[in-house]
Amino acid sequence: MTPASIVAAQSLAALLRERTVLLIAGIFTAMVLVSAWMGWSATATVNGIYADAVIYLQSIGQPVPANPLGQTSALGVLRNLTVYVSLIGTFAAIVTGQRLIEADRRAGVLPLIAARPPARMTYVAGKMQALALATAALVTLAAVISGLTLVLLPAIAVTAGEWLRLGGFFLLSWAYVTLFGMVALGAAARIPATAGGLLAATILWLAVTFVLPALTGNVNPTAAINPISALVATPETPVFTILGTVLGPVSLSEAYAYLAAGLMGYLPAGLVPRGVVPPFLSLIVLVAAALVFALRSGLALDPNAGGPDA
Amino acid sequence: MPDLRSPIRIIARRDAREALRDRFLLVAISALSLAALVSLVTGAIALKGDAATYAAARATLLALGKDAAAIAAPEFWPLKLLRGTLEQIEIMGAVIALIAGYRAAVAERGRQTLALILTRPVRHWQFLAAKLAGGLMLSAMTLAVVFALTALVLNGISGVPLTLSDLGRLVLTWAAGTLYLTGIYTLGFALALWLRSSVSGLVYAFALWLVVVLVAPQIGDTMDPDNQVAGGVFASLQIPKAEQDRIKAGFAGYETFRNGIEVASVTKHFERLTFALLGIKDSYTGKPLSVIWADKKGDALFLLLFTAALGGLVLMRRINPDQLTQET
């Protein structure tokens, strides 16, 4: 075991005793469990409505349009997962990132760690490793639950290609939540006030999820909580075109929603992403930026600021 | 006989001074105003875009010698533009209220001053009532500024002056918002005060916020058959209203379940009440307040009971000074 792995292992063991982290992870898991049923139930209801509408339209001699749901991918029933990852999964990562630093600070062990031989780099790398592993565990749990529910739900047949794309979706989700966790870890390292890191990362997440999309064209904030409403075309006005071009590359929640819908097979045909930078590229660059921020903040951490008596 | 209200006034005044001194009030007002104005302005721009699209389509139809009545003109009701603003209050306003509640508890716990205060001739309920009064004032002031600003901007961008009736509806919306945010503030305050660690209280409060403000309305919203298809499933199938109702009746059980989840959230009651008051929901646009009150008094009552019940719980529960002296 490397020294960084020892730090990571100890941090993960401590995280398992954190009731707040376990609570958020529990809520996330519960919502993952019901999301497939919700998607399946809503899809079945729309199909039922369509069947009734067909009878009515035929009775009055009107042409029958195609089923507007037009859902071709079996993974579409999991569409609510994208919302739960971007709301609860992300918050779980933020709480985890903050606790990884703050727990040591509150316990008063940071000055002790700073007085020991392992380099600061070892400590920070261990903490970042712990965060990445914790979010990976959370996402893996969600993947296993989703896979099982897909197998158990009636009338759902998943092809090999769809299983692969589901795997891609969970990899994307892991990168997305870890990004916010890294921001929280870095913010907690820089801000010694008790809840400073938690609040800073939460405010950034709120702005990214509810304010940025309003500026780039998804006008109503609650569109962010509906996987279908989140995927609307930019209104055709010069203002939104300019704002979309400028802010699109940093509008992370929209990039995630777009990529996730593409992988899960419910992206509306012809919908173009915000801005000129492909969402995948945006996400990679921003994940890298979050990693650098966490690393630099961890290296700049003042072990004597804050503490149990602050 | 000693004036029992005096300690409440003193503590509330001290809290108000602190909120002004450390600029929390300023930051809270600025953040919520910014979010609210962004939503208002982008909503107005989107509507302007719709109007331009309609004008262009109408001109094309007329040039082709066709009847322009075939396309529906976008409706313009200034107060409808406040939809995004209300949604920002539901979400961002609730977060600010939670943080304010957390701060109100931590202000005493972190500095170990609460234990000291409780050694003075101050009753527990007086201390708690002062803190809740502070939350009520903070919510009222923040929303007063937000609504005053949005009303001003709305007047400017719509070009249609707000009527007295519009202003009255805004005042009622402000009152509903104050109740809603005070309830959320009380939740943040209570959890930060009651739990062994105030930070854990904040995290639990955020977890509740996720469930109450986002997840419960999300489940209701996302399970709505009309939200499964962009533009609505019935609109895309061009089914008349009467037939829609007949088809929906066949899915009454599903609808009851979906609605049941929605109404478990106080946020949804706030939304239903205020969307009706401002005519954002089409079926209430232009309707007199008496009609809206008849339909929505249940939502108003839920909002009132939610905040009053939380406040009552906080006032009734005695503070345990031994638990508060050590931040763990």
Describe the structure.
The complex is a heterodimer of chains A (310) and B (328). Chain A is mainly α. Chain A has one domain (3-299). Helix content of chain A is 70%, strand content 0%. Chain A contains 10 helices and no strands. In chain A, 51% of the residues are buried. The mean pLDDT of chain A is 86. Chain B is elongated and about 85 Å long. Chain B has one domain (5-324). The longest helix of chain B is centred in the N-terminal third of the chain and has 40 residues, at 24-63. Chain B is built from 13 helices and no strands. In chain B, helix 3 runs parallel beside helix 6 (164-194). With 328 residues, chain B is mostly helical. Helices cover 77% and strands 0% of the residues of chain B. The chains are: A mainly alpha (310), B mainly alpha (328). At the A-B interface, helix 2, helix 3 and helix 7 of A face helix 2, helix 3, helix 7, helix 8 and helix 9 of B.
Question: Got a strand count of chain B?
Answer: 0
Count of folded domains of chain B:
1
* Largest interface (C-beta under 8 Å): A-B, 62 and 61 residues
Class of secondary structure makeup of chain A: mainly alpha
Helical region count of chain B? 13
State the helicity of chain B in percent bands.
over 70%
Mean pLDDT of chain A: 86
Tell me the span between the first and last alpha carbons of chain A: 35 Å
Q: Using the alpha-carbon principal axes, give the shape of chain A.
A: elongated
Salient structural properties:
heterodimer, A: 10 helices, B: 328 residues, mainly alpha, 0% strand
Q: What's the short story on this structure?
A:
The complex is a heterodimer of chains A (310) and B (328). Chain A is mainly α. Chain A has ten helices and no strands.
Ordered list of secondary-structure elements with their pairings:
The complex is a heterodimer of chains A (310) and B (328).
Chain A: H1 3-15, H2 19-59, H3 80-107, H4 110-114, H5 120-152, H6 160-190, H7 196-216, H8 238-247, H9 252-264, H10 279-299
Helix pairs in contact in A: 1-5, 2-3, 2-5, 3-5, 3-6, 3-7, 5-6, 5-10, 6-7, 6-9, 6-10, 9-10
Chain B: H1 5-21, H2 24-63, H3 83-109, H4 113-118, H5 124-158, H6 164-194, H7 198-223, H8 233-237, H9 241-249, H10 252-263, H11 266-277, H12 289-316, H13 321-324
